[in-house]
Amino acid sequence: MEVVTNKKNLVAIVTGASQGIGKYVAEHFLKKQFKVVAADINDSVKNKWWETNEFKTNLIFIKTDVSKEDDVKNMVKTCIDNFGSSINVLVNNAAIANPYQFDKTIEQLSYDEWNKYIAINLSSVFLCCKYIIPYMKFPTNGSIINISSTRSLMSEPNSEAYAATKGGVNSLTHALALSYGKDRIRVNCVAPGWIHTASDYELKEHDHDQHVIKRVGKVEDIAEMVDFLSDNEKSGFITGQTMFVDGGMTKKMIYTDIKF
Q: What is the pLDDT of residue 9?
């Protein structure tokens, strides 16, 4: 038996929501009348976009280090205290993408740096799922969407830590889907390719041309996929899957004389 809920009563938690994909996804849910908890370690935007936008009454911004268990517990408690005992959607978006700009070989990468990637990119997914899943079980019919990367399938040199964590997110996704299908919780993954979020970089024609569909990705492309996977009416038969949203790049064979 499926439970149809008024979207005005639906609750979504989005991590890594201060900028880029996470911010756009959070705003997308707000436009659909969700109540949204936006979590991020960076709270410098709190008194800017988050506190002044038209959806203020349905939005809570919580400063959260998703790699710390107590912070995640506080995030969940704040959500429940303000929005009720059900959480419909969790978007695990928080990650450090390439803070070292892939400029270190694995021989140069310190163990602390490696562990930072693991903690923020992978362990955070474990922590958020651990404490949010109890509020998503039937009859809530919750949906978890993890944000991975095409780099879980393909790499550039010196990206071992990032690639390993994103591969882990893909695997954790299908494992969770199998474990919690009985509770009517669906778990899927979105793996973006090049999504243009850098305001200080002007896209060039060759940036678009290298993509199969001849354009670089937009944050809207990811938000629409997240929206689809969160909707039990549209994607209720989909779970355990990783959706690659990359303009076809992971399917494109490229022959080159570049030596690695």
A: 87
